[in-house]
Specification:
eight-stranded mixed β-sheet; alpha/beta
Length: 296
């Protein structure tokens, strides 16, 4: 599957693309394209209010579904990928009902439904990112779910692995109890971060590619280390400004450790976020361990 990111909805159910996709190129590579649907604001960032409108306002929801179906009927799409984030906790059941309605409609068209879920460790996990994502309901309704098992280390947080394996395992332990394992696609990050130390609230890490991280380590003469618990590489260096930095990223070792979880838990596969930076090592490791299924 290929999930261009994204068609964003407004509060009236109108859909606007935020990308330019050459579907002829996609067809040449036989990718099954998923129409990614988000509650992103025009200025960026997920909107709880947009999600609330689509999930609870009948007129807005009807318009949303009509617009989705119109796009699918234009051809070139295999299904939809619903990525509604920061949904109000009190909209949890409305989200479940919306998903059931969407899935019934998509299945009538012969289309798949995939949903993206925050990385929960338990059913009762608190926080705006987690509470409205009902793992059991999504697992029962959707054809696949993407577990967003990344961003423990993130732009505005302290330095740590983006997807520490011990944390990912905890998410899978819970998820596979309530979602059929054969429906689960485990999220895999295709990037790293460079944090300035010491971490101060409100400061931002710099995003960089995995290749860029290794290049940086060579430029500054840093010794790349490997955290066994997180199963992730990292290094520290002193910048030109005299400040200490810490970088976490992915390499062949960390990817192999993650892919081993797919077999251990019997998952459907993985889902990459994102593909903007080519990392050939990833695909070498992937193809050494799995046969990638072409659905077209």
């Amino acid at each position: 599957f290929l999930s261009p990111f994204s068609y964003r909805s407004d509060m009236a159910g109108n859909l606007t693309p935020t990308f330019n996709l050459d579907l002829t190129l996609s067809a040449a590579h036989r990718t099954a394209n998923l129409l990614t649907l988000t509650n992103l604001k025009e200025a960026g960032g997920f909107s709880s209010q947009i999600a609330h409108a689509i999930l609870t306002d009948q007129t807005a929801q009807d318009a949303f579904l009509e617009n989705v179906e119109a796009l699918l009927r234009q051809g070139g799409w295999y299904g939809v990928n619903v990525d509604f984030e920061y949904v109000y906790q009190f909209d949890r059941e409305s989200y479940n009902q919306f998903l059931r309605r969407l899935t019934q409609r998509m299945h009538r068209l012969g289309c798949l439904v995939v949903t993206a879920l925050a990385p929960k460790l338990s059913e009762g996990q608190q926080g705006l990112l987690y509470e409205a994502h009902d793992y059991a309901a999504h697992g029962q309704t959707a054809d696949y779910v993407v577990l967003m098992t990344y961003e423990w280390g993130y732009t505005y947080g302290p330095a740590m692995a983006v997807d520490p394996l011990d944390k990912v395992r905890q998410v899978l332990d819970y998820a596979t109890r309530v979602i059929p394992a054969g429906k689960i696609l485990m999220g895999v990050p295709n990037y790293g971060y460079d944090w300035t130390l010491p971490f101060a609230q409100g400061t931002a890490a710099r995003s960089l590619s995995n290749v860029g991280a290794v290049t940086l380590a060579g430029q500054v003469g840093a010794n790349i280390q490997y955290d066994q618990a997180a199963q992730s590489p990292f290094f520290r260096y002193r910048g030109a400004d005299g400040r200490e930095h810490e970088v976490w990223f992915e390499d062949a070792r960390s990817l192999r450790a993650k892919y081993a979880l797919v077999r251990e838990y019997g998952l459907a596969g993985v889902s990459f976020w994102n593909l903007n930076n080519l990392f050939r090592t990833n695909f070498i490791v992937l193809e050494s361990m799995f046969r990638v299924e072409k659905v077209l």
